[in-house]
Design a protein that fits this description.
About 35% of the residues lie in helices and about 30% in strands. By secondary structure, the chain is α+β, with helices and mostly antiparallel strands.
Length: about 150
């Protein structure tokens, strides 16, 4: 960020004039108003706002998000991220039940693999295989992300 940049700082003219600092961090909003009257003018209030913004960036660092969800979405029926129970069709049009595992390969290409089953026992075994496969894909994704961070750091 440039030294004279006004990123995250806005000029406010309602209820007196001043500079408003707004910083978004981890679902929270940090705001503070630097009034011209309190700081002795617009320029002094701006300098104080810029100093506060720089310090707030240090005090509230950005937390990096994992490359995939940690908790399943509300509408997830399998209870596991990236795994859903579905079916595929044969050439004759018959339904074959299966577990579908999906994940993203860089650069954001959706991939999937199906684990077919015919009865309850095979269903449990197919789910175990699907879970193991998904864990392996997540490990690969994390490995790639960590390597990329090392390269850019």
């Amino acid at each position: 960020m440039k030294k004279g940049s006004l990123r995250g700082i806005s000029r406010i003219h309602s209820k007196g004039a001043g500079w408003l600092v707004r910083l978004y961090r981890n679902t929270k909003v940090i705001t503070k108003l630097f009034s011209d009257g309190v700081y002795g003018g617009s320029d002094q209030a701006l300098r104080a706002a810029q100093a506060y913004y720089r310090q707030a960036q240090i005090d509230f660092p950005v937390q990096e998000k994992p490359p995939f969800r940690e908790k399943p979405l509300r509408n997830n029926t399998s209870g596991y991220n990236g795994i859903c129970e579905t079916f595929s069709r044969t050439r004759k049009g018959e339904k074959l039940p299966c577990w579908n595992v999906s994940w993203y390969n860089p650069p954001n290409q959706l991939r999937s693999k199906k684990f077919h089953f015919h009865d309850a026992q095979e269903r449990k075994q197919a789910l175990k295989e699907a879970l193991q496969f998904r864990k392996e894909r997540e490990a690969e994704i994390l490995k790639r992300v960590r390597q990329k961070r090392r390269i850019t750091a």
